[in-house]
Amino acid sequence: MHHSDLRAKAPSLAAGMAAADHGPDIQLAQTRHRAALVASWDITPGSTILELGCGQGDMTAVLAEAVGPTGRVVATDVAEPSYGAPVTLGESAARLSAGPLGSRIDFRFTTDVLDPSVEFPESTFDHVVLAHCSWYFASLAHLRDTLARVRPWARRLWFTEWDLTPASDDQLAHLLAVLIQGQIEAAGSHGQGNVRTPFSREALLRLLPEAGWTADGSRPVDTEDLQDGDWEIAACRDLTTAQERMAALPEPLRQLVLSQTDVLQAVAKPRGNRSLPAYTVTAR
Questions:
Q1: Could you tell me the pTM of the whole model?
Q2: What whole-number distance in Å separates Cα of residue 144 and Cα of residue 211?
Q3: Are 178 and 264 in contact (CB under 8 A)?
C-alpha cells in the first residue's frame, strides 16, 4: 500500500477508535503518525503480523488496514483489558473488533510471549511489530529475551521508539521527564507509567544481534504533531509529587531526581511541549 493511500485513510481509522470519543484531534494525530510509519514499511496485503504491546490498538488498526481482508494481525499485550483511562484496553479492542477491521484482528491481552504456554510454529508470521511500547518493558534483558523468543516465529521485525537524543532544545523537557521516570523505576520504585526502561537507539542496535536479529535499516521518524511530550511531563510531575514513591528512593537519588525536576519545571511549558524525535529500525 502506498504512503498516500494509507495516510488518506487515517481519518476514518481514527474515527473508529474508542478514544476518539474523548479527543478526536489527538486520536487523529496518533493515527496519522502510525499510518505514515506503516506506509514506509514493506507490509503487503495478505500479510500476517504479530504485534507486541498493542495497547489500545492505535497501531493495530493501521496494521489491519494495511494487511487487507486476507491478512491477519495477532495483537498482544501483557496488560489486563481493564487497564487504561479514559478508555480501557478492553473497551478500545471491543470497538475495533465490532468494526470493519474486526475480522482481521485477534486481540490477546494478559499475554506475555515469554510464557511457555504461548507458542507459534516457525515462520507463522511475516512480520513482528513493536511500536512505542518497548520502554514499558521491565528491563533491557526482558526486551532482549522477548525479541529472541519471537525470532523463529517471524521473518521481519519493524521496531519504532522515541529517540533519547533531542533534535532541538525545545525537546529537552520531554527528555528530562523520560529520564526522571526511568531513574525512579531503575531504583526499584515501580509504577504503572509508560516509561520504565528508556534506552537509546544505539542500545537497541547493540541488543538486536544478541536476540538473533540483524538490523538492515534505520531512519528518523517525524513526531511534530504528537502530544506525548506533554503527557510524559505531566506523568513525571505527578510521580515526583507522590510522597510514598519518592520516600522509597535512596536519599542521594531522591535529591538528584528533585534537582532534575527543578530543571524540568524551569524548561517545560504548561502545554504544547515538543515531543522527542523517534526512529524506526528494521531487522531480519
A1: 0.93
A2: 6
A3: no
